[in-house]
Amino acid sequence: MLDSLAGERLQSDARHAESYIRSRADRGYGPRRIAAELKVRGTAAEQIRCALDAADCDWSALARRADRKKFGVDPGGGFDVMAKRRRYLEYRGFAADQIKAVLNASDDFD
Questions:
Q1: pTM
Q2: d(CA 59, CA 38)
Q3: Residues 9 and 41 in one domain
Q4: Torsional sign, CA 53, 55, 61, 65
Q5: What is the DSSP letter of 11?
Q6: How many domains, in total, are found in the chain?
Q7: Whether residue 67 sits in one domain with residue 43
Q8: Cα-Cα-Cα-Cα dihedral of 19, 25, 29, 30, to 10°?
Q9: CATH code of the domain containing 20
Q10: Residue 61 and residue 65: Cα distance in Å, rounded?
Q11: Domain membership of residue 97 as a residue range
Q12: What b/e sequence results for 82-106 when a residue is b if at least 16 CB atoms lie within 10 Å of its CB, and e otherwise?
């Protein structure tokens, strides 16, 4: 059944991956979490990598938006708050450099 749909170009793993990435990124999830979810759904690793590379996403901006939505514009810079923000962004699937950019940008408020 799936082979016939793929043959008629009605089913495409690449199109599914692109759509899934766009949907999850719009909800504030980062590339690592999205890649893990696609892997669980049976998408090939190479296809995931290609789809993430082709995605027109500014992951650092998405991380900043997720952080601000959860913690506000000026959440403060205490160690406990910074650790909580880092854990939250890691859970959402953002990479260390993206998280660092968000946390360093918040140092400008001090």
A1: 0.82
A2: 17
A3: yes
A4: negative
A5: -
A6: 2
A7: no
A8: 100
A9: 1.10.10
A10: 6
A11: 59-109
A12: eeebbeebeebbbbeebbebbbeeb
- Given a contact cutoff of 8 angstroms between Cβ atoms, the answer to whether 92 and 59 are in contact is no
HSE-CB of 99 using CA atoms within 13 angstroms:
19
3-class DSSP state of 44: coil
Residue 79 has pLDDT above 60, yes or no: yes
Residues 43, 86: one domain? no
What does the block give as tokens for 11? 């089913």
Same domain for 75 and 95, yes or no, is yes
Q: What is the band of 107 on the pLDDT scale with cuts at 50, 70, 90?
A: low
* CA pair distance 92, 102, nearest whole angstrom: 13
In sequence order, the 6+-apart residues with CB closer than 8 A to the CB of 42 are: none
Whose CA is closest to 33, among 106, 108, 104, 91? 91
Token pair for 80: 């406990």
* Arithmetic mean of pLDDT, 74-82: 84
